[in-house]
Design a protein that fits this description.
The protein is an alpha+beta fold. Helix content is about 35%, strand content about 20%. The chain has a six-stranded mixed beta sheet, sandwiched between helices. A six-stranded mixed beta sheet has the order 12-11-10-8-13-14. Strands 21-28-27-24 form a four-stranded antiparallel beta sheet. Helix 5 links the parallel strand 5 and strand 6. Helix 14 packs across helix 15 and helix 16 packs antiparallel against helix 17. It is globular.
Length: about 600
């Protein structure tokens, strides 16, 4: 079926059930950014494959909202459908809430599956419907009704994360969590976000590709911990571990029925950003709801010393794989046929050679020429470009290792590079260095860091429509909060947070450039002004010096790059053969 045919089938269901507007978001029951195949309803209906987007279907028209990472991709993928693209954040483009406010009419019914709409979104829709004299029906999964041969929920086994990797026991973590519950005067804490349950219980799984999480919910009180998970996922070792730690296991699908049994006198701690509306609506109305960020979000963002040691080891392995990849590419492009898909397979195979590698941390972005202007481009058989010995190639990739999660982007010159591209490449490099080399006072906010990074690119009259960087989980989601560098980010950088720095320049129909390292925040010294901090890199791979316009770099910037490359050579060269080591010596030389 085409997208238009699927939309027409949904419209028939809308008419049958007296629904006037129907929303299909991108999330699963756990408000995950990336989802398993079972939950890819928005992609199934619309044909848009980006990870972020919301589809709205009315009786006559349909619309899709997505962010700046996907504008170019969405235009291409929606071009053969009736779906109108709304580019979120652009001038005169309404948000979904604004669109509903302007288009809902009295007695209209807004519909969706409440299990995949967040509590916060539900509250916004509910307020609009009250103002407009409309109603909400949140029990319909129309996409699921028309989806023949829908993939089943994952049934893969979970696995335990040993203390030598995670650095803190479940008993220690649950003690800290209960202390926070006391602080918030909560009797019960409900956790539905998969990275939070995985971190808290020291479990991992394979239920979402590239995200080693387990489909699960948790309910925590002061005398009980209940983990709701498919019993077919539990190994004998896990069963013993849960018993030893007094963790009660209940079936995944019994969660909502148990919510209804919560005593109305209880105070329930919830994170409205990370629970779905069905969770909220199944808790007795009289129970007091305490809306706070899940404490585990902040706990896991600050890495312990065991995790940091392991993460550095993971990046040495990852940097070794990437350096071997860059050596191979530089020496073979133009001599043999190499496509974008070939490069993605090559970097995967090199990572797979590293001990402790589990899977990729996201779908590799392997983009040559104008394809790189699409920030989250994925090569397909239809788009798979042949790499030529000229201009720039961008590869954004990463791995999941027992020692941690990696995320690295490099833009590589494959031959002669046009002057404008060199200028853009160097501006991006200056941006990376500006933020990575920043010394700052504790209390500096995410938006302060974002502006520091953007300055060299703003000076060219350019910008990029995404955040400058994001937190990274430990053998968890490659995108992790609360740390994020963007204009609207009020978070405070704590010591031992790991965050990416990934500025870029994207010129439609021409080229895309991004350079990305992960950095670790560290305290330096304290005086009468407060605690000073700095960043140290934990990514170890050469930054291509071929396309640099050296005259644009200050001596301080050259010093930073030279010192970084000295570190890369020290960390990576012991794991290379003699030819690769000689090549790395050339590509980490002083400029």
């Amino acid at each position: 079926m085409t997208a238009n045919e699927k939309i027409q089938k949904i419209r028939k269901l809308m008419i049958k059930n007296k629904i006037d507007f129907y929303i299909i978001p991108s999330s699963d029951f756990h408000q995950s950014e990336d989802v398993g195949e079972y939950f890819r309803c928005r992609e199934f209906v619309s044909g848009f494959t980006g990870s972020a987007g919301t589809l709205l279907i009315t009786r006559e028209k349909s619309y899709l909202w997505t962010d700046g990472r996907y504008f170019i991709q969405a235009e291409k993928e929606l071009s053969q459908s009736e779906i109108h693209l709304f580019k979120s954040g652009m001038k005169d483009v309404p948000t979904i809430s604004e669109f509903l406010k302007n288009n809902l009419e009295k007695d209209n019914v807004l519909g969706f599956d409440g299990r995949v709409v967040s509590c916060r979104e539900f509250s916004a829709y509910e307020k609009i419907c009250e103002e407009k004299g409309c109603s909400i029906e949140s029990r319909f999964d129309f996409a699921g009704e028309i989806w023949e041969n829908r993939p089943p929920l994952s049934a893969k086994k979970l696995f335990l994360l040993d203390i030598k990797y995670c650095g803190e026991s479940f008993k220690s973590k649950i003690k800290r969590l209960r202390e926070k519950m006391r602080e918030f005067k909560a009797d019960i804490h409900i956790i539905t976000s998969l990275d939070d349950t995985a971190w808290l219980f020291n479990i991992r799984g394979r239920d979402i590709p590239c995200n080693p999480v387990v489909l699960s919910y948790a309910v925590i009180t002061f005398d009980e911990c209940v983990l709701y998970v498919g019993k077919n996922k539990i190994t004998d070792d896990a069963c013993k571990y849960f018993s030893e730690n007094n963790i009660t296991i209940k079936d995944y699908f019994s969660f909502y029925d148990d919510l209804k049994k919560i005593e109305s006198s209880k105070n329930v701690l919830l994170d409205y950003e990370r629970i779905n509306s069905a969770v909220y609506n199944n808790i007795p109305y009289e129970a007091v709801k305490i809306n706070k960020t899940n404490p585990t979000q902040d706990f896991k963002a600050v890495k312990n010393e065991t995790e940091i040691k392991n993460i550095i080891n993971a990046h040495i392995k990852d940097g070794t794989a990437f350096t071997k990849f860059m050596y191979w590419l530089k020496n073979n492009v133009g001599k043999e046929k190499i496509t974008e898909i070939d490069t993605a397979e090559k970097i995967y195979n090199l990572r797979k050679e590293q001990e402790g590698f589990i899977e990729t941390s996201f779908d590799t972005i392997s983009a040559y020429g104008s394809n790189a202007a699409m920030m989250h481009y994925t090569a397909s058989e239809n788009s798979n470009s042949l790499l030529l010995p000229k201009n720039l190639f961008l590869i954004d990739s990463g791995g999941q290792y027992f020692e941690g999660t990696t995320d690295i982007t490099r833009t590589i010159a494959l031959g002669e590079v046009e002057k404008e591209m060199k200028i853009h490449y160097t501006a991006v490099l200056k941006s990376l260095i500006a933020l990575s080399n920043t010394k700052f006072l504790y209390g500096t906010k995410g938006y302060n860091f974002d502006a520091i990074a953007r300055k060299p690119i703003w000076e060219l009259g350019l910008d990029y429509r995404c955040a400058t960087g994001h937190g990274v989980g430990y053998l968890l989601n490659v995108h992790e909060g609360p740390n994020i560098f963007r204009m609207s980010a009020p978070f405070v950088m704590e010591e031992n947070m790991i965050t990416t720095v990934e500025p870029g320049i994207y010129i439609e129909n021409s080229h895309g450039i991004r350079t990305e390292n992960e950095i670790l925040s560290r305290n330096t010294f304290k005086n009468e002004y407060g605690q000073f901090m700095e960043f140290v890199p934990v990514t170890f791979a050469p930054i291509d010096i071929d396309p640099i316009e050296v005259s644009m770099l200050s001596q301080e910037e050259k010093n930073y790059l030279n010192n970084y490359h000295k570190l890369v050579f020290e960390k990576i060269s012991p794991f290379l053969n003699s030819e690769e080591k000689e090549w790395l010596k050339i590509y980490t030389r002083e400029i």
